């Protein structure tokens, strides 16, 4: 790119430099009003990136953008005479330019223009999810392993990641929790990306998100509608009633996955029975299974998660094993 020419006006007013930053996660052209004001009022608008996503929209709006990568000295000259130069920053920012301007200012020999950082668009909460979708698209297309994966092949990883998330929660490890949440989120995005390729019933991550948004709004009329809920119990009762209507369930056991861990399965069944106010005697029989069944039902009635309780006891057992081994295997 060619160096920019100095301003023809030799006046002594130092002028103004506006460094305009934008987010690639926001649709091009959706800039803040102060950004559009600065662009229309500028004497010159410069951008070092010839394929910057904002350029076509700026030119369509009548903004003459020069494709140039000016040095700090050139920017100072271009601002001479009180002119305003807007620099549309690239995705990496403009570290060479800002460092150069700081260096010139440090010499004390140059009358510096006013420097303003103007964010033209902002990331909304959740914007980095767009990055994840884009990265997943590329991995699915270019990675020899990822491109061959199926829903069935990935199923075991979903189970593993869910258990690792539970472990991080129970251990109280915040760093591990953040990482494991990311791993679970990856599974969701990965499966949604695979689903896009289904020839008969494709759906995308947007369909997944749209579905859960609609479900949450429908099941929270006390938040998004006119109903009221004073207690968590009120919310749960409405949630279950709504699910029963939606799913048209004939039994309280409908929708309880039998493939989940046995203690969790038993607790879930007991919870359904208690919530429905049913009187169901426990089946009797010989063997440890029926004893465990009774213990799990008793735990649920006491408000204790039997899976979590057994895991906590198992950790104590693990520590006792290590102690008996004389500390071998610690860490």
Automatic annotation (TrEMBL):
Record-linked InterPro entries: 4pyrrol_Methylase_sf, MazG-like_dom, NTP-PPase_MazG-like_N, NTP_PyrPHydrolase_MazG
First-level EC class: hydrolase
Entry-linked SUPFAM superfamilies: all-alpha NTP pyrophosphatases (SSF101386), Tetrapyrrole methylase (SSF53790)
EC number per UniProt: 3.6.1.9
Organism (species): Streptomyces atrovirens
Official protein name in the record: Nucleoside triphosphate pyrophosphohydrolase
Keywords: Hydrolase
UniProt domain NTP pyrophosphohydrolase MazG-like: residue ranges: 149-224
Alphabetized GO MF terms: nucleoside triphosphate diphosphatase activity
UniProt superkingdom: Bacteria
Keyword Hydrolase belongs to the record: yes
């Amino acid at each position: 790119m060619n160096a920019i020419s100095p301003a023809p006006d030799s006046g002594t007013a130092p002028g103004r430099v506006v460094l305009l930053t934008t987010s690639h996660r926001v649709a091009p052209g959706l800039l803040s009003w102060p950004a559009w004001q600065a662009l229309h009022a500028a004497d010159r608008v410069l951008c070092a990136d010839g394929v910057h996503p904002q350029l076509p929209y700026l030119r369509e709006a009548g903004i003459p953008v020069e494709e140039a990568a000016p040095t700090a000295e050139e920017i100072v000259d271009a601002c001479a005479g009180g002119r305003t130069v807007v620099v549309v920053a690239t995705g990496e920012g403009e570290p060479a330019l800002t460092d150069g301007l700081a260096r010139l200012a440090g010499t004390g020999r140059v009358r510096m223009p006013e420097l303003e950082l103007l964010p033209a668009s902002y990331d909304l909460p959740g914007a980095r999810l767009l990055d994840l979708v884009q990265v997943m698209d590329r991995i699915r297309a270019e990675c020899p392993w990822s491109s061959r994966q199926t829903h069935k092949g990935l199923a075991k990883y979903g189970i593993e990641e869910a258990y690792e998330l539970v472990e991080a929660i129970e251990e109280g490890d915040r760093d591990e929790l953040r990482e494991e949440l990311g791993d679970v989120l990856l599974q969701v995005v990965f499966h949604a990306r695979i689903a896009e390729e289904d020839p008969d019933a494709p759906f995308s991550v947007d369909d997944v998100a749209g579905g859960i948004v609609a479900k949450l709004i429908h099941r929270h009329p006390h938040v998004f509608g006119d109903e009221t809920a004073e207690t968590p119990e009120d919310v749960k009762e409405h949630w279950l009633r709504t699910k029963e209507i939606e799913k048209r369930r004939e039994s309280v056991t409908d929708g309880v996955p039998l493939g989940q861990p046995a203690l969790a399965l038993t607790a879930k069944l007991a919870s359904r029975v208690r919530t429905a106010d049913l009187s169901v005697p426990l089946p009797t029989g010989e063997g440890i299974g029926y004893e465990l069944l009774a213990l799990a039902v008793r735990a649920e009635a006491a408000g204790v998660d039997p899976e979590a309780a057994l895991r906590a006891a198992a950790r104590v057992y693990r520590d006792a094993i290590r102690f008996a081994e004389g500390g071998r295997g610690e860490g």
